[in-house]
Amino acid sequence: MPRTLAVQAPAAGVRLITLQRPEALNALTTELLGELAAELALAEQDAETRAVVLTGSRKAFAAGADIKEMAERDLVGILEDPRVAHWQRIASFPKPLIAAVNGFCLGGGCELAMHADILVADEDACFGQPEINLGIMPGAGGTQRLLRAVGKSLAMQMVLTGQPIDARHAQRAGLVSEVTLPELTVERALEIARAIAGKAPLAVRLAKEALLKAQDTDLASGLRFERHAFTVLAGTADRAEGIRAFQEKRRPEFTGR
Ligand code: CO8
After folding, report:
1. Cα 66 to averaged position of ligand 1 atoms, centre (Å)
2. What's phi and psi for 44, nearest 5 deg?
3. Relative to the CA of 134, which ligand 1 atom is closest?
4. Do 179 and 126 form a contact (C-beta atoms < 8 A)?
5. Pick the CATH number of 201-247 from 1.10.10, 1.10.12, 1.10.1060, 1.10.860
6. Residue 34 a catalytic site member
7. Residue 185: predicted pLDDT
8. How far is the CA of 107 from the centre of ligand 1 (A)?
9. pTM
10. pLDDT tens digits along 113-140
11. What proportions of the chain, in percent to the nearest 5, are helix, strand and coil?
């Protein structure tokens, strides 16, 4: 049983993972990141799971890497940091991951939220990379993913001043897709997850991969990947079912084949 997470199945095809270290505003310990990576591995292997929602508490999605734990690591400790492998496993999760962000989303917490494919935030949430205040810098993808999400000027401002932005600003900048009332954030993320869970799993998987390629590669390579993925889907039973259902004016029944 994970100790720093709660895992629920609130709807068919949907898993809800809740970070649970309220005493430290969900600060990300090595243990928590390991448990999260393990839960995502289970969700990946489980054919019934089609989308995952990741959330924290009403006060904090996560207030960063655990500073107490970090204080105990010297240069060699950082070099051999087991968290790096956990972050890599989280980053390679192939199914849709939706972050429902309430409250503080700072440092490693903001980096974790940026591992999600879709971010929904409550209107009181704040996003920031305050590492500079500790004499360090983001170390779990923050400089790279934030710049891609919000552009150079705002990313520089956030990382170099350490000052957070509010949810509306994050939405205007493109970091967040929707802003909700605090009590509705998780419900809205679950709604999006349920909508995705009803689609053809292979199409969802390849569409996610193609969209992520757009961040990592040049246009020609991205377009080549899209073309291959589109062609692969032509061989699936779900494509035939999707087209047939449209023609017969009924809802499709996708099987993941
Ligand atoms: N780590 C550990 N404990 C924390 C953290 C944290 N990041 N954030 C909050 N806590 C703890 C506090 O110490 C406090 O515990 P206690 O009651 O025992 O003193 C408890 O949570 C409640 O916090 P506050 O009393 O401070 O609550 P406030 O509402 O007054 O303030 C803030 C909330 C503004 C969020 C404040 O807690 C804060 O500034 N937290 C630190 C934020 C921060 O600097 N985050 C960045 C951390 S560094 C980082 O994330 C680097 C990532 C690199 C990853 C590399 C991986 C390989």
Report:
1. 7
2. -65, -40
3. 44
4. no
5. 1.10.12
6. no
7. 98
8. 9
9. 0.97
10. 999 999 999 999 999 999 999 999 999 9
11. 50, 20, 30
